[in-house]
Amino acid sequence: MGELNLATVAAANEAWVLEPEGSQVAETAEYRLVRFPERFPDPLQLQWVRSARPAEAVLGEVVARAVEFGLPEVNVYVRLSAPDGFVEALLGYGAQLVDTGDVLALALPADVKAPDVPGLEVRWLTALEVARDANAVGVSVFGGSRASDDELAPRAAAYRDSVAAGTGGLLVGYLDGTPVAVAGVELVDSVARLWGGAVLEAYRGRGVYRALLAARMTYAAEHGGTMALTQGRITTSSPILQRLGFISYGREHSYRLPLR
Known about the structure:
Elements: H1 6-14, E1 24-27, E2 31-35, E3 44-49, H2 55-67, E4 73-78, H3 86-92, E5 96-107, E6 120-124, H4 128-142, H5 149-165, E7 168-175, E8 178-188, E9 191-199, H6 208-222, E10 227-233, H7 237-243, E11 247-258
Parallel strand pairs: 3-4, 9-10
Antiparallel strand pairs: 1-2, 2-3, 4-11, 5-10, 5-11, 6-7, 7-8, 8-9
Pfam family, one: Acetyltransf_1
Organism: Kribbella orskensis
Protein name: Acetyltransferase (GNAT) family protein
């Protein structure tokens, strides 16, 4: 299939924001702050800023609101729609660059074949034991704290329902029975949002990441997906994804902004 339209990709990317169960949201017409549950490694996030006012004035209001959450810092996402001068305003407040990623998309269906990885088994997270494995891999790669079975059991039930309904779920990759990778997909308005793809460092370079990518894209296409969308770190996943046909539609950055 052909290349996607920039405006279409940008709109789908802007519509994608995270709000895990138990989050607190402070949203205005100009910004969106989310206080995630404690188990997340970056519990306070500024997910977007959209304003015609001077960036420094808007950021001053955001900082004042963020301080009310009582945390030492906020993770700030500079999205494609960020106003002019926003990065300069952040740096003026002492923010430090944490990460840079490409906004990547590919029309579906796409010819992304799974490599032959000896000993690899891919399972959907539909049971508690798989949820435990996914949680262990996720914490190892992304940080945060381990969840209890009381927290994991309802997640497994919810994923079991969403996988069956064709709206997505979480895959866990096992090599010779050992959980080594996770990768999520969510279908919203025919857009397959590919999230949380990670492989334990000792098992990278064997094709596991690509195998889970192929499984998610096949699932998405079978359930009506017309676009695969993700954000890929420029030092890790983005080069892999672009070799597989994904196109970068712009770069986004995350900064750590101290509040004390």
